[in-house]
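Board work, copied verbatim: Outer membrane protein beta-barrel domain-containing protein
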Amino acid sequence: MFVRSLSIGVAAAALMVSGAQAADLIIPTTPEPIYEPAGFSWDGLYAGVEAGGIFTDGIDDDVGGVIGGVVGVNFTVADPFLLGAELQGDYVWMDGDDAGLFLALARVGAVVTDEVLVYGSAGVGVSVTDGDDDGVFALGGGVEVAVTENVSVRGEVLGLGTLDDGDDFFTGAKATVGVFYHF
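↓ predict structure ↓
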């Protein structure tokens, strides 16, 4: 009899508990994300425009303007270090001597914060003036800052020299600012 009373008591308690749980409100919750996305991604292809000035050291010091386009690619080799390659094509105007300046550059940089990249550049190219072309080299660097998820702005200074046997290492400099879209 005691076992029977105990069984009935346990069954009644189980029925009452399940009825009480059914009356509780179920409030759905959104789980917290496990992964927080990283900041701006400097890896991959990018393209943009640049404008600025060019300064040469010749018989008389010349100052001119520069406007052009840039396309390049970056690879993070080890956080925070980055390697890249870049092609620049510029239209240069200076005292009636318009020219084209085309450079192929290698870039080595460091991602200082998620949004700031500091880099150095070196490369070679050609300057075309009135059908004459001269071999040139460039050495310099810049700072690039991410402003949105895919857009960055940068400032860059490149020392320019000719590949012939001149007395001066640098015969000019190019200072530009640019806006770039990262794909």
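The beta strands are 44-56, 62-78, 81-93, 99-113, 116-129, 132-146, 151-162, 172-182.
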